[in-house]
Amino acid sequence: MTYDLLIHGGTIVTVDKDQRVIANGLVGVKDGRLACVRPHLASAPLPDAAETIDARGGLILPGLVNTHTHLPMTLFRGLADDLPLMTWLNEHIFPAEGAHINPETVKLGAQLACAEMLLSGTTCVCDGYFHEDDIAAAVAETGMRAVLAQGVIDFPAPGVPDPAQNVATARDFTARWRDRHPLITPSIFCHSPYTCSAATLEKAKQTARDAGVLFQIHAAETEFEKNQTLKEHGATPIGYLHRLGLLDEATLLVHAVWLTEQDIDLIAAAKSPVSHNPQSNMKLGAGIAPVPALLQAGITVSLGTDGCASNNNLDLFEEMDMAAKLHKIATEDPTVLDAETTLGLATRNGARALGLHQTTGSLAEGKAADLIIVSTRPAHMRPLYHPASHLVYTANGADVSDVVVAGKVVVRNRELLTLDLESLLQRATAMGKTIA
Amino acid sequence: MTYDLLIHGGTIVTVDKDQRVIANGLVGVKDGRLACVRPHLASAPLPDAAETIDARGGLILPGLVNTHTHLPMTLFRGLADDLPLMTWLNEHIFPAEGAHINPETVKLGAQLACAEMLLSGTTCVCDGYFHEDDIAAAVAETGMRAVLAQGVIDFPAPGVPDPAQNVATARDFTARWRDRHPLITPSIFCHSPYTCSAATLEKAKQTARDAGVLFQIHAAETEFEKNQTLKEHGATPIGYLHRLGLLDEATLLVHAVWLTEQDIDLIAAAKSPVSHNPQSNMKLGAGIAPVPALLQAGITVSLGTDGCASNNNLDLFEEMDMAAKLHKIATEDPTVLDAETTLGLATRNGARALGLHQTTGSLAEGKAADLIIVSTRPAHMRPLYHPASHLVYTANGADVSDVVVAGKVVVRNRELLTLDLESLLQRATAMGKTIA
């Protein structure tokens, strides 16, 4: 066979269920899929290929999966920090969104986000925002794999001035993007149990079920939310969602910080995946999700960066490092979230959380060729004993040299090939001046 | 005046006591010192200079100060992770040190560490280890500013087989390195209150006092240590050091995690500086130092990475990000350790902790020209509203483009000029194979 793309010479970190690591690896890509993932004798000739990447000195691993963000908020990166949550939201973020979010700016912000993510090794992202049609069109140009959700909230929102139309707008979005683009999967995102009525939550989830798409929701992020839900509904946020019949395998629970043991049992029984956003939770002082307990209960925990305004970047390598260290200190147990487990959250579990585990999240023959190469040449990567350790504790996004999505090389030698990056960055900088 | 070096066009983040930020800045260097730090009209001609750096699109700030590490442990980066503290130390780190630490390997590890630190924007480091003469010789070649301490411990140690000679060895080291090299300041490092007897602690501190050098000690790192000190000495680790008369302005307390309110009062009264090592404390599950309370008490808190084996890199940008987020979540208060405060820990406070505040730690005329340029060109740095926010929450070491120490350009366009990096990295990789 003549491969479309051949990557050779690096160490393959498959992140498959057996955590196979293959020295002197060979990855062959055909028709966007992994046709071979195997060792290669240095003395043997390389198979024929239309394009070849020499990955010597590199780690070849699945592209990272970011299961929660709000792409256009790159435009608000660092606009307001170090503030109480409600001051930050009500006096800075919501007003900035009201003044500046429109179809043009969401495109710009989404492409800036995709550029940053691809350059730092994320190949698949899950977004929830507004003007999602425009976001989807913008993301499609970047070559990134994405699950994109139109937001639903019971307030006037960007592009949805009449909240009565919120679920219909989301339904229409999912209909328009069904099978429209090979890399884009539509979804529905309800903002939270405290900003959507029970009727809205039920209707949105039913619409997602009817369309066969992922339903996403911020849930149990803050103690304030937990107390308010207890007071208004006599249940924890998770208990309330359970009572409404919203928990199932296709409901992605974002944050999941303030959980009781019973909540964990409910999530486990429903097989709902969780998007853990440690840096956002830390920066906003929201709380620490009980990730070791969630994993112990068999729940699919994945990693998200959240929007740039509460992080303030989209580097999943930093998110892995922070996640592992946060839970070690929270439990005072250095053995929890070991490097291999943490790498799994950002890859295999991310794909599973989004329902894309047949497609991406590990390097296995037959899956899509979504992969990255991490250089081990920099000083901070020497020496190297265990690849997973370096990927979690040592590397950051700047160590990513090459990125492939569905077999297409989108980053080569740290250069983004799918967008005019310089023009994009100039427009982002100009928009920042307008916003400031 | 003709400057030796002129840096122009960037935004100067002085990190001085007024937190001045100077757009279109001009930095002039003469005889290794900052001769001018001021704004420059784009229309005006540039002053004459032997060497000029165009810093447009960059942030010009003081070089970062890492107040605690063990340089040669770069060689053990990622050798053992995710283990209980005592297993990690007794079964992995101590045996690896016993088998592999010698004058040759400490040089290699120290140069690897300096290469990594300079390339990621750290211009001044404080080390405590063994074979410190060899480390000092190796560090001197790198062009880095350093406070280097010979270790004292009441066990046989690398290069000090007879513990009875531990303080004398440290004394001789400080004598040999007094005024020997303009960038190197000698110091004495006692390992801890639980590995050194009261007599050793007192003698080592007296020796440091006599030599007029900084005394460093790991103190109150783990709950185990606190309980053991309470049991053996009837005092907390800090109370015990106070009783021995060891606390003063020239005693750097490393970790300072397990503190009572009275301990904080003792540290504040003695004006002892603290080296906070959040990533090491998190990764080892040691505990969370009460940094907001220490700052509130007027204590000089600085940042350290600790050795590479418990971090696993030496990137102070990541350390700032982690520190700010750790204390927000620990206190559930997003306003603590704001970006400007956190940037101060890694610069101004670092210099003060080491007694080098007349020399380095901020950009002010008359101080040494220790500065770095951080690029704001990458996607993850756009847009930019507040420089301190980007430096703490967004940037990492790979964004550093240029590094100047004492007026000498040691990194230019991300290239290290003082060492043969490729040869160094090859030797580090080869040593890793031996160790593995």
Instruction: Name the overall outline of chain A.
Output: globular
> What's the arrangement of strands in the largest beta sheet of chain A?
8-9-10-11-12-13-14-15
Protein chains sharing the most extensive interface: A-B, 74 and 74 residues
Q: The CATH topology of the largest domain in chain A, please? A: TIM Barrel
Quaternary state of this entry equals homodimer
Largest sheet of chain A: 8 strands, parallel
Q: What is the helical fraction of chain A, as a range of percent? A: 25-40%
Strand content of chain A: 15-25%
How does the helix and strand content of chain A classify structurally?
Answer: alpha/beta
In whole angstroms, the N-to-C terminal distance of chain A is 55 Å
Q: How many separate domains make up the residues of chain A? A: 2
Named CATH architecture of the largest domain in chain A: Alpha-Beta Barrel
Question: What's the tally of helices of chain A?
Answer: 15
Mean pLDDT of chain A: 97
Number of β-strand runs of chain A: 19
CATH superfamily of the largest domain in chain A: Metal-dependent hydrolases
Radius of gyration of chain A: 21 Å
Task: Indicate the low-confidence ranges of chain A by residue numbers.
Answer: none
CATH class of the largest domain in chain A: Alpha Beta
